Sequence to fold (123 residues):
Amino acid sequence: MYERKIIPNLNCGLDLIGEVLYGKWKIRLLWFIHIGHKRPSELQRKIPDASRRVLNIQLKELEEHELVTRKIYPVVPPKVEYSLTEFGKTVIPVIAALGQWGDEHEDRLRDVILKQVVPSLNE
Fold:
């Protein structure tokens, strides 16, 4: 497992939220859990570009940061569900605001991103 070699800089709120939410799929995982997709297989279907391993790692990190809880049901095969903690629910308005900003600037953001991804479009 990954072991951090450098102590994170935690001097301000932006550093702290970056530390907790850094990860390609974490914001989407939190949102999908919030809207009701709680089983790992459901989350995998909602984020098909992510490998199951990466999703599990990021879910574990969200659990370690006390944003989600994992419940294992004693059935065969084991059933696992994730839910937001009360603390995790407090980040949902922030994620909603980021999503709204992205929606409002969708065309411009898409153009900027595509210029970087597909340089031939600039010619």
About this structure: The domain at 13-121 is CATH 1.10.10.10 (Arc Repressor Mutant, subunit A). Helices lie at 13-21, 26-34, 40-46, 52-64, 86-89, 92-104, 106-117.
